[in-house]
Structure formats: C-alpha cells, structure tokens
Design brief:
The complex is a heterodimer of chains A (about 100) and B (about 475).
Chain A: H1 5-23, H2 31-41, H3 45-55, H4 59-89
Helix pairs in contact in A: 2-4, 3-4
Chain B: H1 3-24, H2 29-57, H3 62-85, H4 91-115, H5 121-149, H6 163-183, H7 188-206, H8 214-236, H9 239-262, H10 267-271, H11 295-303, E1 307-312, H12 314-318, H13 322-334, E2 338-342, H14 353-360, E3 368-369, H15 371-377, E4 383-387, E5 417-422, E6 442-446, H16 449-465
Parallel strand pairs in B: 1-2, 1-4, 2-3, 4-5, 5-6
Classes of the chains: A mainly alpha (about 100), B alpha/beta (about 475).
C-alpha cells in the first residue's frame, strides 16, 4: 500500500504523455463523445470515495463519504450511459437501400 | 499485502490499461462504441476489486456499508436518469454536470481522508491541491452548466469590472490555504479555507465568461477534474486514480488548446472575460445593405444545385432544428444534390457539439467536414447554407485590427451563392457586423432556423411534385 512517492510521480508523468498521445488521434467529429468518455474515466474517483467511506467512523465522515460516493456513482453510470447513447448515433455511410428508418 | 489485495491491485492496473485502450478506440467512429464498452467494463472491474479490498480489510462498519450502498444507488440512478433523458441539444450542460460531480467527489474524498487521521506533507500537499482544484471544478462546472441551461445569464458579466482583482485575491487565499494545510495537516481550519476559496474561485472564474467561449471553458474544467482526480490518487496512494486522472487531464488540455486556437484567443484572455459585448440582441445595422430572400427562393437555389455545403452553428441547436435540417438534406439528396456539412471547431457550446446533433438525425459522419476539408470544398459549392452560425463565417477575421482577426474561419464566401438563415441582423459573440451578410452573393432568410428549414423543405417538395 505504500508506493514510493517518486514511483507515483513517475506514473503520473508517463500517464500524462500517454494521454497526450492517445487523445491527439481522436478526430474532431468525436470530440463531444471523447469529452464525455474522459468524464466517465474520471469517475474512477468512485473507488477513492469507496476507500474513504470504508474508513469513516463518525457522522461527519459518513456524510462526506455518502456525498462523495453518490457523486462518483453518478459520474460513472451517467457518463458511460450517455457516451454510449451518443456513440450509438454515429453511423457509417448507409448507402445500402431501404434504410430510411432509424433502428 | 495479502493474496486478495494483490489480485485486486492487478485488476485495478488492468482497468487502467483498458481505460487507455478504450480511449484509443475512439480514433474512429466505427470502433468508438466498443472502446466505451471496454472502458465501462474496466470501471466495473475496478469497483469490484476495490469492494474486495475493503471487505478484506474488514474496517467498514455497518453504517459504512449502508452509506456505500445507498450513496452508490442514489448517485447511479440519478446519473442514469439524466443520461437517458437528456436531449442532444442539451449535451453540453450534462457533460458539464458530470464534470462537476467528479470534481466534487475528488475534493470531498480528500476532505474526508484528511479529517480522518494524522498525515504528513506528503499527503497534505496533494490533498490541498485536490481540494482546491476539485472545488473550483465543482462550482465552476455548475455555473457553466447553469449558463448553458439558461438558468444563469450567459452573457459575459462585463459590468463586474473588479472581477480580475477579486479572482487574484481568492487565488491568494487558496494558496495560503494549501501552504497552511501542508504545514498543519491535522487542523480543519486550513482545509475549510482551501475548500471555501476553491468554491468561490470557480464561481468568479466562470461567471464573467460568455456563452460562445463555453467550448474552451468546458474543456478546461474537464482538464481540472482530471488533475484533481490524479491528486486524489496521491492522497490515497492509489496509482489507478493517478493514471486515470492524468489521462483525463491530458485530454482536457489538448481540447482546451484546440478550442482556443480555433478562436485565435489565448486561454488567459478567455478566462479574463469575454469580448465585453456578449450575446447581445440586435443592436446595429449591417455594414452594407443585406438582401432578404424568401424560403421559396432558397428552395429553388438548393433544388437546382449540384453541391450544397451546410454550415451549422449554435443557432441550429438553440432552435432545435437538426431534424428539419436532415429532412431537407434528404430531400435534396433524393434529387441528386450532394450535401455536406462544414463544421467549425468552436461551432456550438462544446467541442464536437454540431457533430453530435447531426449524428442524432442520422447524418453519416463522413459528410461532416472539419475546417480544412470544408474550406477545400466550399469553392466547388453551388450554395453554402449557413444555419445559425455567425462569427466563424465572418471574412473580417482575415484582416488585422479587429476582434476576430486571425481566427480561422470557414470560407463561406468562396461558394457560388450563399444563404444565411438568421433571426435578425444581430451581432455574433464578437459584437461585430458580419461582412458576409453584405456580400452581393448572400441572401438573408430572416426566420427561426427550424421554421425556415421546414418552409424550404415544403417548397422543395412542391417543385418535386410538379
């Protein structure tokens, strides 16, 4: 549980670089879903909220943990659901005949 | 570290890897949905692994479990409802809202963690940063969401002249809070100071920023949440949070830069406040005489064109006219007209806003052209149909010495004929006359975008019937 600080800082720096590399390949057409997807990824804060909730033992601690867990869960579930809804709409050129109706 | 925790930690690492692969799959619309599903699955694994860790530690009280279960259920259901119900035109405010809760959760968990024990500077410093950045994102995103929803006035509050000084003072206060917290991590006072100043800063930072600058602001707040989550990872010594947060931070920074470049404005000048005029109603006449046209005139031009380029802007979203636009395009395509869409990076209220609207109404994504592609195509267009876009088409941007100078624009004036659908001769965000409207090739159709598109489509149908 005690990762060396330098190791974690190294991870942070490398992850930033990976982020720049991966994100710069996303086309402008998908920028809204991309933003929504990265929104869902920062929903990982939910697991942090869970860890804090697991250590809470007084009223204030419970209240803070409750709010953090609720926020985190809303972020995760809502983020992935809405991203999926958006991406579902992006379709390839449907040049095949008889396709006027939406699925 | 026992076996259960070891396995769980490897699962968390795998989740982080899948987040990266998931985002990588967003390089093409064809694979993007799979990427999102992969990322969602990884998130579920991460949550399950964390649950295993806390069960294994056995420190959770009965109340703690209740808090966890009820909190997760309440938050998850609320998120799901919002995600299912939101209209595509309202997507920017929802994304902003999810950004707010993410930042809020990051700030809260640092508060909870620091109140809970005795820590050194190694935890307190990132904790302070997490609290401040998370709080700024929370209140800032809520204000941005409110502005987009129309609950908070969207015009830049230029009257608030002292805003810059107030911002500097608040920034000084939260800096003091962070330093104080690092020195005395076991006292609640510096923690509350940092939290309060962060929340206040978010409000005063976003409140003066106008609607058309929202793509930049939303991107910037997205970057801030990522950094706040990474800081939370340092606080809890949780590498998965650090990795995921850093990737989101990088993504936000890239989008912020793209948006600011597309407006040829620096991020600081946007944060310092809008152009000072804002989304004002019609104030002055055009630079030259504008030629009004009727829906029937436009219908004839479109019906007998071979190439039409549509230039959508925020006005299309505001009028919720995307369905009518797509219907008109299908009518034209049925007559053999080639229809494409020219999309400026900052059209709408968030990056890619127009693309989502068009995707909603089944426009195939290869027809959505980015700035460069669109400008290569516009000279071949018989008609450029501008629907609810303004500043991004203003040729004045090519000349030095005005508010738009240097901003990359769509070369709409290169098309053979131009039709602009607009409610009035009102100014765009930059508060300038659009010289395009005075161009002899331009016909102005003064109407609400949705009504106008319906009227044009009706006229096109009339021709087809003859």
């Amino acid at each position: 549980m005690t990762a060396d600080l330098l190791t974690v800082v190294t991870l942070f720096a490398l992850a930033l670089l990976v982020g720049f590399e991966v994100i710069s390949k996303v086309p402008a057409t998908l920028h809204t879903p991309l933003m929504s997807a990265t929104n869902s990824v920062h929903g990982i804060v939910l697991i942090g909220a869970m860890l804090v909730a697991s250590a809470a033992d007084d009223a204030l601690g419970y209240a803070i943990a409750f709010a953090a867990v609720a926020f985190g869960a809303a972020n995760v579930v809502g983020g992935y659901a809405v991203t999926d809804r958006m991406l579902h709409m992006f379709r390839a050129p449907a040049r095949e005949p008889e396709r006027q109706e939406r699925p | 570290m026992n076996e259960i925790e070891t396995v769980a930690r490897y699962a968390l690492l795998a989740a982080a890897v899948c987040f990266v692969i998931g985002l990588r799959l967003m390089k093409s619309p064809a694979t993007a949905r799979r990427g999102n599903l992969l990322s969602a699955t990884a998130m579920a694994v991460a949550v399950a692994a964390t649950a295993a860790i806390i069960v294994d530690r056995g420190t959770v009280t009965a109340v703690g479990w209740t808090v966890l279960a009820v909190g997760a259920a309440a938050g998850g259901l609320a998120g799901l409802r919002l995600a299912r119900r939101v209209r595509m035109t309202a997507m920017p405010q929802l994304v902003s809202l999810f950004n707010a809760v993410g930042g809020g959760a990051a700030a809260l968990l640092a508060v909870g963690h620091l109140l809970d024990g005795d820590f050194g500077v190694r935890v307190a410093l990132p904790g302070g940063l997490d609290i401040v950045i998370g709080a700024i994102t929370f209140s800032g995103s809520l204000i941005a969401s409110g502005k987009l929803q129309g609950v908070v006035p969207s015009r830049p509050l230029a009257a608030f002249r002292g805003a810059r000084i107030v911002n500097l003072v608040i920034a000084a206060v939260f800096t003091v809070g962070i330093v104080w917290l690092s020195l005395e991590p076991d006292r609640p006072a510096p923690l509350l100071l940092a939290l309060g100043a962060g929340l206040a800063f978010g409000v005063t930072m976003v409140l003066p920023i106008g609607g058309a600058d929202m793509p930049v602001v939303i991107s910037l707040l997205n970057a801030c949440t990522g950094i706040a989550v990474a800081m939370a990872g340092f606080v809890l010594d949780e590498p998965t949070l650090v990795i995921a947060g850093a990737i989101v931070g990088a993504s936000g920074v890239i989008l912020t830069k793209l948006m600011a470049d597309a407006m040829n404005r620096s991020i600081t000048s946007i944060i310092a406040g809008g152009f000072g005029t804002g989304d004002e109603p019609a104030v002055a006449g055009p630079a030259g005489p504008a030629r009004p046209v009727t829906a029937a005139d436009v219908a004839i031009q479109l019906a007998y064109a071979s190439r039409v380029v549509v230039v959508p802007g925020y006005g299309l979203a505001a009028a919720r006219g995307q369905q009518e636009l797509a219907a008109l395009a299908r009518l034209l395509e049925a007559r053999g007209v080639v229809v494409d869409y020219a999309i400026h990076p900052v059209a709408g209220r968030m990056p890619g806003h127009m693309n989502v609207l068009l995707a909603e109404v089944d426009v195939p994504y290869p027809q959505m052209k980015e700035l460069g592609e669109a400008n290569a195509e516009l000279p071949q267009a018989d008609v450029a149909l501008v629907v609810g876009a303004n500043d991004v088409t203003n040729p004045a941007a090519r000349r030095p010495g005005n508010a738009l100078s240097g901003m990359p624009i769509l070369d709409v004036d290169a098309a053979r004929r131009i039709v602009v659908i607009k409610r009035s001769m009102g100014h765009g965000y930059a508060g300038m006359d659009n010289e395009l409207f005075a161009n002899p090739k331009t016909g102005m159709l003064f109407a609400d975008a949705r009504a106008a598109l319906m009227a044009i489509a009706a006229s096109v149908r009339d021709f087809a019937g003859q």
